[in-house]
Records
---
Amino acid sequence: MRQKLFCAVGGALILGVSATATVAMASEENAARLGNDLTPMGSPMAGSADGRIPAWTGGIEQMDVDLDAGEIYFIPYQGDERLYTITADNMDEYSDRLTEAHKALFRTYPDTYKLHVFPTRRSASYPERAYEWAKINARNAYLDGSDGLNGAAVTWPFPVIEPDHEYAGEHVMWNHKANYVPQSVQYFYNQVLVTSDGTPSLVRMIQQVLYNYSREGITAEELADSNIQFYFIQRIISPSRLAGNVVLVHETLNQETEPRQAWLYNPGQRRVRRAPNVAHDNPAQASDGLRTNDQNNMFNGALERYDWELVGMRELYLPYNGYELLDLELTLDDMVRRGHLNQDLARYELRQAWVVDATVKEGTRHLYPRRTFYVDPDSWRILAVDIYDNRGNLWRAQEGHILNLYDVPFMAYGIETVYDLQSRRYALMGVSNMEDPATAFNYRAFQEGPDYYSPSNLRRLGRR
């Protein structure tokens, strides 16, 4: 049982002891910092003292891009020149700004792995609605235990992070989990599985999501009544041996009171069945064991199996503004290298990141006993993860190559990676270069309602 002093809305102090640890977030004074010394997202407005990280000046403003006509996102910083390249030969010069996983990748692939470092561009921006709700959430959001979010809607529930708060680590992770996303989205989450000799195999899959959390007109009270954060469908298009498999998830906002609900449709069995294992460390669909269910979107689902410690904020070389990875002319041969993504296509910048260390709670279990997350405070997206095995050795590494989808605008992953440093296999997720840009990421034409995300609809989707 955790004991906490927590603030009610309006600043009245209430002493409380609760078995579920009900904890509100920001004081009125801290919430007022948004848009002043903090950006509307909650990151430091100012840049670094040495000027290498600039001040945030609004990010990329909304641009009119007609993706339905087949136009793709152009590279807004195409004129940037590379500052330097970090390799296995010079990594010691930069080691204090490298993640442990990056150091391990240099040691594992000394002849080919590299980080091309470019000027830091604070491109993150969101609709005004997200900024307005961030201020509301900062004054009202609270947790019931690690997995019970209350009093928030639309966007980041805890934009003002108080490092000394007992639940600071959970707050950072919830900002990632409850990030701003347009109400309805359809996108290809194509997965490339690469063997140790560099041979790729492609799994085409499409994901469809209805974000009840960011629905127009939504209120925190309505969310509390429905307890639905989002509806999610993932269906496999190819190869033929996997085609027709469908996963449906109803993600609950307060999993302390109601866990995630999930269903599977298997075309061979021709039936829909409940799937409580679509969570935590069970293998993700069609992943060949390279990633777990909670690694989709870098991390998703309940926090209950870990203790979450906010280590602090660091300056690190992390993937950012990865527009080149969306180039429609790229083929799998262009993107895949033995052991890792073609690093000549990846852009890294010196970024500030919240570091959150997750260790498995006593009495529970997870395939990954420890994970260290590096979370960008401009976007509240996880950019990198160090993953350890039962012996305390670094086992796997994740990266999220994010960019601003500036016709909304909001920050999303272009490609996610999972590297297995022991088997030397890896997976790329979100590889949509071979898809029509009008369908590769669509949040306008695709506007299905909750009925579409029903178990009764899975059989029909699996037969398409």
---
Amino acid sequence: MSSTARRCGVLGDPVAHSLSPTLHRAGYAALGLDWVYDAHRVPAGGLAAFVDGLDAEWRGLSVTMPLKLEAHARADRLTDRARRSGVVNTLVLDGDVLGDNTDLPGAVAALEERMPSAPTTALVLGGGATATSVGLALAETGVRRIAVAVRDPARAAAAATAVRAHPGAPEVTVLRLADLVDGAAVPVRPDVVVSTIPAGAQEPGLVERVADVPCLFDVLYDPWPTPLARAATGAVVSGLDLLVHQAALQFALFTGRDAPIAAMRAAGERALRERDPARGAP
């Protein structure tokens, strides 16, 4: 590497499937930056030791599961959105360690790019870290009533508390996913359904219940289309949309340069087609 080069990377377990190296490297190439970005498998409990072992060449880290809470704990400083969500997916290394959550503004950008009109009600499937970030993003866009459907309502407590604490004070109701599949009434008539659950958990009964919503936001990008995306009759926001927008924000934080979003998105789409030539459009 040249004297001006820097290192960045994505940490997680598993992480070999991550598109982040493809996106960030495409951004570096488009801007002529001699930077390196690689994937690093770091198991649960290993983030702090990994970060503490880095030298001055390192500039930034993207953090995926199961390390987002560990990243929150390791950061020396937190942005407001990281503090509000309790989740960190970005570590900026600049003397100290700044923790940020680019999933939140990335989700806002993805929704605004695809949705025909601003939503006011939402149904979120799943209650983990991604659901927390997207729930806060929904509140940012003006959503005031949110239902969260999970297998175990107790596991959604942290997400519900974080979303309720948003300055917009949205009303958050938690229900069992099984009850939703069985036909139980949803507390809201959603303008948008956000799915943070695996494709294998998208059962036919669930797919049928939400197929006709005005907008589906499925945070997955591989496999694609998911059962929910395949059945959707309205606008569809994909996990690739989210990944590109949050990666662009990370790119700017790490490099200090505006991200070449079109080049990054094109690289991501190309990589996914190479993995699965039969895949549908994201």
---
Amino acid sequence: MENLINKIENELNSLSKEEREEILKKLRDGIDDIDKQLVKLLVKRTLHSVLIGRVKQSMNLATYNPKREKEISQRISSLTEEPLTKEALLRIYERILDESRAIQREELDKGKIFKISGKKIKKGFNKLLSKKEFFIVAFFFLIILGVLYSTFFTPNYYKSTSPIKVELKLGETLSELSNDLYSKGIIPSKTNFKIAAFIYGAEKKIKAARYSIPNGLSYLDLLDYFMKGKGDLLKLVTIIPGSTLEYVASTLQHDTFIDSAEVLSLSRNRFFLDSLGINSPSMLGYILPRHYFIYERSSVDEALRILYSGFHKFMSDSLKQRAKKNGYTIPQIITVASIVEGETNKKSEMPIIAGVYYNRLKQGMKLQADPTIEFAKKGKWGRLNFNDLQIKSPYNTYKHSGLPPGPINNPDKAAILAALFPNKNNYLYFVANGNGGHHFSTNFQEHLQNANKYRKWLDTLKK
């Protein structure tokens, strides 16, 4: 019944017509069974009412007793449960009481017209079965109990070397899991496993993880293994826009227990980068910000390949062709995108800012991008001063012309698309406007005026 309720409450609109008709039939069959029980109980109640009428008659008491009926109404009201309201229940009982009084009056007028025996009110258990029949039932019950115990509680042994690795993916069904377990010889019967899962209520409780299944687990022990997640769980790992490799490594260690130092080391390993086709100093810029599912304690190689898969799928052939058409390589596009990501969180401005940097590159100007200085400072974020602009680093775009050696963060899709499809404009400068956006200008004089407005705005914050 609970499964039917869940389907009606949560899945009704998605069910087919045949599935809804099947649910309707089951509910109607249930009502038929309930009606049988109600009739038996009403008959039993009426028999009691007839006997009460006879006792009243012998005591010369009236058939109608307002006080008693009021007590019944109060007691019945206290038993009300949704969806049946108190008023509805009282109306039903009012009709039952009317019929009970009518039957009592009929007996008063016509005499004892109903033959009542003790069997109609109560039939003892000892009358249901003879002693021989009782032992036969008990014997078969013990046999069934033994079969159930033997099937679901005794150990199942496989022939392979223990333990066997099983990977339960996110969204994998019980049938898919049973097929995998059966194909690896861990369980001798898929049907028995499914029955055990039904008895145990395990179908929606098993956890996605990588499991090392020891030998000799019963069906129920195996299900307990899956329900309690006795393996390396599948965890959600979130990479945010503009993140650094240090952030990625720290997130992996925190969420999946993968060593952060090993992550940083492999993400800069030339042989590993070549295997991914990354022509940059590191994986920085090639981990697309989004959600990833990674098993706890995965190898560093596997984890980084999963993180790279987001970028690999996003960077389609058409986008690669776009980069080529613009006259830039993919590493150069990602480098520009990372600078754009570092400049603004406002997606609508990203193509404009990308256009500014491309304009500077075409004119041979230095990029003079503050985010590259912040990157060169190696995590020492803060407002830049004159000394910061003197930092000796190939990422210092105030000193070195052209693009820096590689990306400075992991840019989001919006920044990458901005670098691929920049806004065509004549802007060469921009400065923050104090409202989360920027003022853009085509010449240095106008830029100085905008910068002066920004400094005045900063001064108002100090007051």
